[in-house]
Amino acid sequence: RGHLRLEGVTKRFAGDVNAVSDVNLDLERGKLLGLLGPSGCGKTTTLRMIAGLLPITSGRILVDDDDISLRPPHQRDFGLVFQNYALFPHMTVAENVAFGLDMRRVPKAEARRRVAEALELVRLPGYGERKPREMSGGQQQRVALARALVINPRILLLDEPLSNLDAKLRDEMRREIREIQQRLGITTVFVTHDQVEALTMCDVVGVMSGGRLAQIGTPEDIYERPASLFVADFVGRTNILDCEVLNGHRVRLGDGVYSCAATTIRPGKAKVAIRPHRINLTPHRDRALLSTSTNSAEGRVLRTTYVGDIVQYDIDIGGPTLQVETPTHGRGLAVAVGDKLLCEWRPDDMLVFER
Ligand code: ADP
Ligand code: MG
């Protein structure tokens, strides 16, 4: 129960704009999929099509091999949570949570029991008689979650549910939602523009760009093996630099020639991506210690920025400027503007993409 498949799902609004183009994905039951992408890339449109709130232009949506593409929302048995909670202000918390049960004509006594269970699940036992406005944003979002879950939905759909919460609460709610999702084993699609949210909460991440699924994979796939420059740039911090491919494993970057991860991109101009925290800084005099398989470049520190948990350095390596990050503690390297240092990084951490 709850295996979700999208086949060529497309949405064209009036005016010939494809808001979503040919989205294909297969989500195993019980898994949490994050749809990640910048504003306007088609996340909400995709979610609304899955929910049945928006008709699809072409393609198919299947749940447990059952084609539900044309089924109205209330017959899909999906639970929905939105960014703005969308609670009914004049109803109590219990009435809000019971809404889906009343619609389904669940007997009163059973409804009362299930509402109490759902409020227990979201850690709001005893809050049933309150009005939404008497509760904090985080509590209101928990009520919305209880309302979505009380019907035992086949699939849970969440559209940026944490975006209205402050950072600390958001972090807490991420864990809580993930915990509930795993406990219930409920197939879930979670829309977010926040890469940390997608990487930390999800089993599978689908990165969207311009209405298309740019890449789908585990958080590690997405972060370590981005399929395109867009994904490398959007997920995590990355140096993106102009380079020239010399052959399948060598690139020129400014004045230097370096080893890169194996590439099939033909010789010529390209882009290279290197994560700032994958670059090590060592004092100039340690050069003899470097292994030959590691890239190294002499650099001059242009700028240092203290960020708390990390320090960021802008380093001129003879043409391009590299951004490098090191943890604040544990390195013991005192670096100041103007210092000369060696930057070193592994070929595998140097990914080449078409321009
Ligand atoms: P996201 O949720 O990723 O921010 P949306 O799915 O809301 O993006 O929107 C994707 C694209 O579709 C945007 O360009 C948006 O302007 C357009 N769009 C969304 N809803 C409509 C609509 N009802 N009519 C016309 N265009 C729309
Ligand atoms: Mg949206």
UniProtKB/TrEMBL annotation:
Q: Which organism is it from?
A: Skermanella stibiiresistens SB22
Database matches in Gene3D superfamilies:
2.40.50.100, P-loop containing nucleotide triphosphate hydrolases (3.40.50.300)
Q: Name one GO molecular function term.
A: ATP binding
* Protein name stated in the entry: Spermidine/putrescine ABC transporter ATP-binding protein
Protein family per UniProt: Belongs to the ABC transporter superfamily.
Q: Which GO terms describe its cellular component?
A: ATP-binding cassette (ABC) transporter complex
Q: Which InterPro entries match?
A: AAA+_ATPase (IPR003593), ABC_SmlMolc_Importer (IPR050093), ABC_transporter-like_ATP-bd (IPR003439), ABC_transporter-like_CS (IPR017871), Mo/tungstate-bd_C_term_dom (IPR008995), P-loop_NTPase (IPR027417), Transp-assoc_OB_typ2 (IPR013611)
Q: Which Pfam families match?
A: ABC_tran (PF00005), TOBE_2 (PF08402)
Q: Which residue intervals define the domain ABC transporter in the entry?
A: 4-235
Q: Which SMART domains match?
A: AAA
UniProtKB keywords: ATP-binding, Nucleotide-binding, Transport
Keyword Transport present in the record's keywords: the answer is: yes
Q: Does the keyword Nucleotide-binding apply?
A: yes
